[in-house]
Write a structure and sequence with these properties.
The strands form 2 sheets. Strands 2, 4, 5, 6, 9, 10 and 11 form a 7-stranded mixed beta sheet that branches. Helix content is 0%, strand content 54%.
């Protein structure tokens, strides 16, 4: 049981990226995104439930948007106006019966 992320890469500062995460199984109830940069603690970015209700960490509300396509069992993270400090490994998480299951992560690198 593991969600699968995609969409990371190298982008110039000020650019945008959209990450995708395919949920494990036929449906999901709650999924989210975290990130972790080298030498730093993991940060919670956002979560979204199967009804499409999003929630965000306070540092991410302005530039990041989480969305879902329930028919495709996929969630997305749209990231705009990216900054070098956004460079990190971005992880998708899927909660199943209250247990978080993390994907392997996708690297985002923002160059100045």
């Amino acid at each position: 049981v593991q969600p699968v992320e995609s969409g990371g890469g190298l982008v110039l500062a000020g650019g945008s990226l959209r990450l995708s995460c395919a949920a494990s199984g036929n449906s999901f109830t709650l999924m989210g995104w975290y990130r972790q940069a080298p030498g730093k603690q993991r940060e919670w970015i956002s979560s979204i439930n199967s009804g499409g209700t999003p929630d965000y960490g306070s540092s991410f509300k302005e530039r990041f948007t989480v969305s879902e396509n329930f028919a495709k069992n996929t969630v997305y993270l749209q990231m705009n106006d990216l900054k070098p400090e956004d460079s990190a490994n971005y992880f998708c998480v899927q909660w199943i019966e209250g247990v978080p299951h993390f994907g392997q992560g996708t690297q985002v690198t923002v160059s100045s």
